[in-house]
Specification:
By secondary structure, the chain is an alpha/beta fold. It has 15 helices and six strands. The protein folds into two domains: about 200 residues, 2-Layer Sandwich (Nucleotidyltransferase, domain 5), CATH 3.30.420.10; about 90 residues, DNA polymerase, domain 1 (Orthogonal Bundle). The chain has a six-stranded mixed beta sheet with strand order 1-4-3-2-5-6, sandwiched between helices. Strand 5, helix 4 and strand 6 form a beta-alpha-beta unit.
Length: about 290
Amino acid sequence: MNHSNIHYIADSNGLTDLCRRLRESKHLALDTELVRENSFVPRLELIQVAVEGLSAVVDVPAVGSLDCFRAVFANFHIEKVVHGGKQDLELLHAIVGQVPAPVFDTQVAAAMVGYGTQVGYAQLVHRVVGIKLAKSHTFTNWSQRPLTQEQIAYALEDVHYLLPIREQLYSHLRRLGRLDWVKEEFTKLESSPTDESRDPHNRYQRIRGWDDLRPRSLAVLREMAAWREGEARRRNIPRGRVIRDEVLLELARHAPSTPAGLERRDLAGDYSAGAGITGNRMAQGSSGSTA
């Protein structure tokens, strides 16, 4: 990695200059670092970008507004290269207000040329580029300031190899005649932050075991999962801090029809003491779902 071309962006002027450089590129490697433990929407801490001859880490809390990224993300002449980027796209759409597109996801592309489904970035770098990445900061605290030089270098590794990997995967896909296939998958990925799967009433489908429920229990789970989504968003806390998936599933299987029925269950005490949710409100959510 050429350290003379590495930039740490921590003010609005630096970000404006960076966006100007990015708009001149055809391919943009993109990644994020976030903190998710204590909020409903993960807190974006860093945006890492790389184009030919330039790599940068953007300190999101320091720069403030990310408005200049909107034009970059919306520019269809700039291909955004990510790895397993669905969460990145969703978060950037939520914060910047623009889905980065068009997208080339190296994890998706790697699966189509035989590297296996959901291959990790470090593994792909090793197999394609021949470099073994260190894992010293896998569980680092990205919210701490100041960031160390080691943290910055580690964050940049996540974008540094994306462009050469993209070139090799693209060539491989073209030889196999699979470019149209992978483009279909990329189009789905680009639409995922705004598609109907984001409807709170579809959130129940992400709870393991939902497809084993009977119709009435499934209706209860659907409404309660939607209720939890709204409650978590309103209070800006993780979904599991409102009520855990396994508790929702058990309540759906044996749905009480009254507050007293819920309060008689150990399940109520299992989460309400930590999350501050009363049995009365939960029973209202349950009974409302069967109407």
